[in-house]
Amino acid sequence: MNVISAAMAGSVWKILVKPGDNLAEGQEVAILESMKMEIPITAEKNGKIKAVLKQEGDFVNEGDALFELE
C-alpha cells in the first residue's frame, strides 16, 4: 500500500488535500503541530489521494499513515 506517513509525533493541525486530489512531488498535504511548531508533511512522489486516514485534531506517532495513495 502506498501511503504518506507522519514524519514525527504530533497533532494533525490541518489537512490540505481530499480523496481524488492529484499530487505533485513536494506538495504539502498536511500540517502537524508538535511543541507549538508547525511541521509540513509533503508528498514524496506524484500520485493521487485514495483515502484520508487521519482527521484534523487526531494525534499521530512517527510513521503513522496519514494518507493512502492510488
Tell me what you see in this structure.
By secondary structure, the chain is mostly beta strands. It has one domain (2-69): OB fold (Dihydrolipoamide Acetyltransferase, E2P) (Beta Barrel), CATH 2.40.50. It is 0% helix and 54% strand. The protein contains no helices and 8 strands. The strands form 2 sheets. The chain has a 4-stranded antiparallel beta sheet, with no helix packed on it. A 4-stranded antiparallel beta sheet has the order 5-4-2-7, with no helix packed on it. Strand 4 (28-34) and strand 5 form a beta hairpin. The radius of gyration is 11 Å and the shape is globular. The mean pLDDT is 96.
Ends apart, CA distance between termini: 8 Å
Quaternary structure classification: single chain
- Runs with pLDDT <50, length 5+? none
Q: Briefly, what CATH class?
A: Mainly Beta
Number of extended strands? 8
CATH topology category name: OB fold (Dihydrolipoamide Acetyltransferase, E2P)
Summarize the main sheet. Answer: 4 strands, antiparallel
CATH superfamily: RNA polymerase II/Efflux pump adaptor protein, barrel-sandwich hybrid domain
Compute the number of structural domains. 1
Shape: globular
The SSE string, one letter per element, is: EEEEEEEE
Structural class: mainly beta
Which range does the strand content fall in? over 45%
Tell me the CATH architecture: Beta Barrel
DSSP helix count?
A: 0
Question: What is the mean predicted local confidence, pLDDT?
Answer: 96
